[in-house]
Amino acid sequence: MIILFIITGLIFCGASVFCFYKANYCACTQAGQCDNPVNHYWLGAMLNALISLALCCFALHVELGTLLWLTLMGNCFLGAFISAKQTKKRQCSKTNSTNALLAGETN
User: pTM of this prediction?
Assistant: First the structure.
C-alpha cells in the first residue's frame, strides 16, 4: 500500500511539473493572450504538488514523506529541464543545417 501511495505521488509530481512548465511557456510566448489558461496551469501545478505531498506524507509520515516529496519534485524538474535543453539543442542544429543548405555552404 505504501508503494502505491509513493507511485501515485510520483505521478502527481510529474503532472505538477508539466503544468508548471506549460504555464511558463504560455506566459513567455503568448503574454497577454492566454492569461486564463496560465491561471489554470498554475492552479493545476500547485494542486498536483499538494496532492503529491499529502500522498508522500501519508505513506511515510511527515518528515520522511516531505523529504521523499522534495526528492521526487527535484528529479521531475531536473528531468524536464534536461529534456528541454536537449530539444532546444536539436532545434538549433536543424536550423543551422537548414541555413547552410539555403546559403549553399558545405559542412
Answer: 0.73
